């Protein structure tokens, strides 16, 4: 019911703000304790684990029936399937590489899904004090002020966020991927990357950028940002232009259908070349 949602929202907002202090206080520390997960670029720090435990214990003591899908727990216990039950999808630090380098673009990303649909999305960068929030059907906000996607409709006028250079199905910098990236660099107004999929999505939501795509991500990287983009009037699709896959491991976000069309055409062509190799 509505009053429950208000309670969930107020509770998670308070917990996220407190958790943000942990991120902020540790960001400037140059000697972060790092562990490697699947590769030398797949990182986890003591702060990731501390924030995740803080959020899960705070939420589960308030809402004992709620379920969790969270990055560092999943790394240890395997991924949990999303069910119809109220489920908090948590990335304790999105942009861990940034955090390790004290590059000030990391955030806490947290979303509540009910019946497999996003109800609440919060992306909080406590270093730059950017709090992005959205609730289903109620719009998207940055520090309490309503945000909207840009009016950009053509690729040549668009600022495109190209996050990592991989492209399905290889996630490697092959000649086909290099060709795609260079065609986007020359074919767009310019390109950027913040190093956090959640913050990249929020940049599309507030009109700072016009489109963004990313392959090889996980559901917790985009669960909150996706709702924020949609509530800001933007589109989130599969990179081929169809509906977003429920596993959420690839995304295209844009301010307009025309940008989705222009980008998905190029992304599909590259993917087809890689598949036919
Ligand atoms: C990563 C960031 C990055 C994206 C990677 C993610 P993490 O998340 O969102 O921008 O390109 O695919 O894994 O590991 O910092 O939570």
UniProtKB/TrEMBL annotation:
<feature type="binding site">
    <location>
        <position position="71"/>
    </location>
    <ligand>
        <name>Mg(2+)</name>
    </ligand>
</feature>
<dbReference type="InterPro" id="IPR020552">
    <property type="entry name" value="Inositol_monoPase_Li-sen"/>
</dbReference>
<comment type="pathway">
    <text>Polyol metabolism; myo-inositol biosynthesis; myo-inositol from D-glucose 6-phosphate: step 2/2.</text>
</comment>
<feature type="binding site">
    <location>
        <position position="94"/>
    </location>
    <ligand>
        <name>Mg(2+)</name>
    </ligand>
</feature>
<keyword id="KW-0479">Metal-binding</keyword>
<dbReference type="InterPro" id="IPR020583">
    <property type="entry name" value="Inositol_monoP_metal-BS"/>
</dbReference>
<keyword id="KW-0378">Hydrolase</keyword>
<dbReference type="GO" id="GO:0006020">
    <property type="term" value="P:inositol metabolic process"/>
</dbReference>
<comment type="similarity">
    <text>Belongs to the inositol monophosphatase superfamily.</text>
</comment>
<dbReference type="InterPro" id="IPR020550">
    <property type="entry name" value="Inositol_monophosphatase_CS"/>
</dbReference>
<dbReference type="GO" id="GO:0008934">
    <property type="term" value="F:inositol monophosphate 1-phosphatase activity"/>
</dbReference>
<feature type="binding site">
    <location>
        <position position="93"/>
    </location>
    <ligand>
        <name>Mg(2+)</name>
    </ligand>
</feature>
<keyword id="KW-0460">Magnesium</keyword>
<dbReference type="GO" id="GO:0007165">
    <property type="term" value="P:signal transduction"/>
</dbReference>
<protein>
    <recommendedName>
        <fullName>Inositol-1-monophosphatase</fullName>
        <ecNumber>3.1.3.25</ecNumber>
    </recommendedName>
</protein>
<feature type="binding site">
    <location>
        <position position="221"/>
    </location>
    <ligand>
        <name>Mg(2+)</name>
    </ligand>
</feature>
<dbReference type="GO" id="GO:0046854">
    <property type="term" value="P:phosphatidylinositol phosphate biosynthetic process"/>
</dbReference>
<dbReference type="InterPro" id="IPR000760">
    <property type="entry name" value="Inositol_monophosphatase-like"/>
</dbReference>
<feature type="binding site">
    <location>
        <position position="91"/>
    </location>
    <ligand>
        <name>Mg(2+)</name>
    </ligand>
</feature>
<dbReference type="InterPro" id="IPR033942">
    <property type="entry name" value="IMPase"/>
</dbReference>
<dbReference type="GO" id="GO:0046872">
    <property type="term" value="F:metal ion binding"/>
</dbReference>
<dbReference type="Pfam" id="PF00459">
    <property type="entry name" value="Inositol_P"/>
</dbReference>
